[in-house]
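Many introductory courses stop at the sequence. We go one step further.
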Amino acid sequence: MATIKAPQISVTGQSAATSQAGTASPATGTASPESSQVRTRSPLPVLMCGVFMIVLDFFIVNVALPSIQADLRASSGATEWVIAGYGLTFAVLLITAGRLGDRFGRRRIFSIGLALFVLASALCGIANDPAVLVVARLAQGFGGALISPNVLSIIGVAFPGAARVRPITIYGMVMGLAAAGGQLLGGIVIEADPLGLSWRAIFLVNVPVGLIALAYVRRQVPESRADQASKLDVPGMVLVTLALTALVLPLVEGTQLHWPVWTLISLALSPVLLGIFVLSQVRTERAGGSPLLAPSLFRQRELGSGLATQLVFWCGQASFFLVLALYLQLGKGLDPLQAGLVFTVLAAAYLATSLRAPALTLKYGRRLIAVGAVTLATGEAALLATVAGFGGTEPIGWLVPGLLLGGAGMGLCITPLTSTVLAHADPQRAGAVAGALSTMQQVGNCVGVAVTGVIFFGALSGGYARAFEFCLAQLCGLLVVVTVLALMLPRRKVER
């Protein structure tokens, strides 16, 4: 039976192989002597604390959005920015943050990211205006971007060879639990209403947790940096930020402003800026530099189709959670805890299939991703049929079959997609591919929320059920594209 060789990855684009405990190979750079103590002082609790918070805060907000909107009198555009803004700043800084860690020290950049995330969480919790909340969420995204790639890089240096399997497995499980359980945890926190904080508690809880993690960073986490760190692609980062902002800003603001001229101009400029970004990446790579996203990755069929699949798949995930949360609370009248409990159906099915996904990937490869996409699409189609059939008056129990199928489909897609693409990557470029996959995920989340938000809020005149139906139809269409792209992944057997 074919097996997948676990690539030795670092999100920075360099091999994470290590020669011996406490000593990084030249490919990874130099680790400080304290990394030799990793066997007795594991960095995992601190690192996983950071991972859990940054993933959780993307999803926990969904069940709090109606409360935020009512309390701050926020517009639909501001509501979307609470989600999309976090994903936008996360996406554009992700790969650059890995290179900052290579150059200035991975623990140092991780610590700065954690401190920024804690500060931004505090600002979210005390925000008394939608604009302040959105700005604080943008800052949270920057903090999350500084944390995410450096976690994998630190693991790559601190855990050599086969010892890396366990922390990487834990990393994946923590991400899955944070994403799948975010809505329930948010509902519990808001329902408990500690100190009368309501929705603010979901942000403020990060403050003591993050401060405790910061207090243990120097004691638990080894410092390391690359011997020859890649230069920062500042022009690339600026161009991709402008291109994404030119696309997302009018999509989020256009509906409520009735599409003024500037929104149309901005949308027209977005592909132009994206084209300039691509040309700059090609020139940088040809000149022997380090582009933000290496164009050569997309020229390889197995990697290009994999990255495209990742982008389209994630365009539908955060947006699905968003419109489902809005429909359950504003359309069905559920409180945050009740809505969170509905999300546990998705979470349970996701965990059940994701636990089996690694073994199934070995046997079925790309076909498993296609099956997962079809299963997820079937679940969303079942939700569409149920809501349309009852006209929005359906008992909650009637949504369970669609939610179960949806969660199961997610579990069959997320991990297999990442492992399948990485298995076909040159080990010397596995880090660059991992960084590109993460970037595609965050860009997909951001753009997906903006596009689906246009559909949802634009259709609200027909009621929440009707708006939800339109979004489900759009999301099913995206999953058809994901299925086709998954089947374009190479048949080549992965390494034994």
